[in-house]
Amino acid sequence: MDALTMESITRFQNWPAAISILVLTSFAVLVIHHARRPSFSKGAPRFFDAGNWPIIGALRFWTDRLNFVNQGIHSSPSGNFSFYFGKNQIVGVSGPEGRKTFFESKDLRLAEGYEVLFATQPAIPDDAYKGEMAFDKWFQRTIIGQTRKETFARNLPLFINDTRESLERMVARAGNPGLMDPFDDLYKIIYQLTVRIVGATEIANDPKLRAKTLGLFETIAGASSPTRIIFPWLPTPAYIRKNLAGARLYYELNKLVEDRKKTGRRENDTLQYFIDTDEPIIRSLTFILGALFAGQLNSGITVGGVLISLAWHPEWYKKVQEEVDGVIAKHRKTPDQSAIDILSTLSIDEYTDAFPLIDLCFREEIRFQMVGTAFRKNVSGRGVPVGNAGDIIPKDAYVIYPMDDVHFNPEYYPHPEEWDPSRYFPVEGKDQPPYLGWGTGRHPCLGMKFAKLEMSIIGALFVAMFDYSLTDVKGNPLAAAPPKDRSGHSSERPKTPLRLKYTLRKH
User: Compositional bias (Basic residues) spans (predicted)?
Assistant: First the structure.
């Protein structure tokens, strides 16, 4: 009996070690099984093996993207190269032929590329859209329908009031003179205007709900992880947070829908359009998130960036201020009108046409803000040739194109590191350089008109209300902003926090 008992105890004591070995072995087998990588097909661009790890692939594509891509381009005679990231086959293209193929081939799809390599959208059930219009076509049709000129005209007074009230609250909070963070204060204004157009009126009007949903959106936007791309079956903490945030947004949106249906209350907004057309909540949420990603992550950063750039380019700051003051003087009806009252009387057409210098400044800022690479996926089921270079994009492979191949190419933009909106002035007999800021080829930016309107409104009102200068977080003057980190993956706040010191202007 004693021997049997001791034998049982010894066996039980060994179980934890045995279970651990079994779990680790099973995990290793699972990793190896899911990480088996298909070989690149004949004709694929030269393989770039610098930093290529077994199973993981080229981790530098995530940690040091700019240098990795540039080295890949220079490693290949054609300027196109191949590499693995996890088990994903990726082809990097460059040059005029690579750019033309990337942006104009109908065999390369945008949505599928970003879904995997950007990896920030909430998971959507595989059967969510069976039997319905393809989501990308439905998205395009819907965004075009919800961003018509008449929609902008109807909401213009609200856009101006939203911006004005936000800036006035900022002054009430920070004082006059005061310090403001353009990548926070203006970012929130962009969210309010954007959600008013592509989302729900209740969110735009309610500060608490607006802050709550913006926080959830930022959780989703910040959840991209190399681990999840390399091991797509692994439920990482970031993946779990992203989906929990998506579920909470779903709950908030569904609550608004149910309240409108219960009370019979209607709003003239995109959510009401979805209710009237019986769109499923999951599809409505996916649209709103997609539209926010397209606008918020770009315009939200760019609008702060352009004011920073103006602050350390006094010649351009003066030109823009004179442009805004000239519009105010032209439309003044009575001496006691405030500058903001006058700007509130402008029409959509006037906001579109009256601020050409503001438009050029934003165009140049977008050139600086567009970092990293754009993504596509070959969905044709066959190899896709890259121009006449002789390279082939294998079927099911992902494709990347570096924005700096155009925007920081001195052949197109002399002294590309200099912020100079005058480079877009028309010159007789000279074509404008290629520009990717508003999309190109098969994917022009569908929200361009709205983004330009947002930037004109916020830019004009801010310059009209304030004199300002660039400082650090303590208010110490800065002669220039630190150079932008071009190795990032998308538009992002500066790594070194900056502030604008403002004083209310008197007109």
Answer: 496-507
Using CA atoms, how far apart are residues 58 and 218, in angstroms rounded to an integer?
A: 27
Q: Examine residue 156 and state whether it is found in any structural domain, yes or no.
A: yes
d(CA 331, CA 350): 11
Our measurement of the distance from residue 166's CA atom to the centroid of its chain's CA atoms, rounded to an integer in Å, reads 23
CA 341 to chain centre: 33
Domain count within the chain: 1
d(CA 454, CA 304): 12
> Would you call 251 exposed, middle or buried from its count of C-beta atoms within 10 A (0-12, 13-18, 19+)?
exposed
Q: What is the CATH number of the domain that holds 291?
A: 1.10.630.10
Q: Are strands 384-385 and 392-393 parallel, antiparallel or unpaired?
A: antiparallel
Orientation of helix 314-331 relative to helix 356-369, angle to 10°: 140
Quick check: is 290 in a domain?
yes
Dihedral sign of CA atoms 468, 472, 478, 482 in order = negative
Phi, psi of 35 (to 5 degrees): -100, 5
What range does the domain containing 141 cover? Answer: 135-371+435-504
Instruction: Assign 3-class secondary structure to 92-118.
Output: ECCHHHHHHHHHHCCCEEHHHHHHHHC
Cα(435)–Cα(490) distance, rounded to whole angstroms? Answer: 17
Tell me if 140 sits within 8 A of 147, measured CB to CB.
no
Q: What is the pLDDT of residues 164-199, one digit of tens each?
A: 999 999 999 999 999 999 999 999 999 999 999 999
pLDDT digits (tens, 9 = 90+) for 92-136: 999 999 999 999 999 999 989 998 998 765 444 444 444 445 777
Q: Could you tell me how many helices (H) and strands (E) the chain has, helices first?
A: 20, 14
Residue 495: CB partners within 8 Å, gap ≥ 6? 482, 485
- Give φ, ψ of 85 to 5 degrees: -130, 105
d(CA 463, CA 323): 10
Q: Is residue 193 one of the residues assigned to a domain?
A: yes
> Alpha-carbon distance 60 to 106, whole Å?
29
Decide: residue 191, CB within 10 A, 0-12 exposed, 13-18 middle, 19+ buried: buried
489: pLDDT strictly greater than 80 = yes
Q: Is 361 annotated as a binding residue?
A: no
Tell me the two tokens of residue 358.
């503001």
